[in-house]
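INFO batch 0412 | record 1 of 1 | parsing
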Amino acid sequence: IKQQLCIISLRRTIYTKLKRYTRRNKFTDEEIEKIYKNAKEFTEIFHEKSYNLAKEKFEQYINKYDEIPEVLQQFMNKHVINFIDRYLLYLKDSKIEKTSNKLDNYYRNTDPEIIKNVTKLEMEY
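INFO prediction complete | emitting tokens
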């Protein structure tokens, strides 16, 4: 069974780690901006329309490995590099959803952003 790994959770985890990392370490605004710009470049890989294009973009990103911030390098080594095909599986087969989380998938497909936030908050309590 092929299992699509959740891109939404991946993105959320990356930005949470970056937030903690930049708070713990004293960075200038320029350095923080550079770190987040690099993370955005990585997450844009998952917005591509075809598997081959996304895979090619990922290879280009990995070729610039020395330019990637340390926190992203560690995260990618542990969670992404060996599993990139499972993150991009939805591009190969149109029947596979982008996320394995049904709740995230429901909100992503049906409700506008403002309703998503309000509803999620109400459901948590």
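INFO post-check: The two ends are 35 Å apart (CA to CA).
INFO record closed
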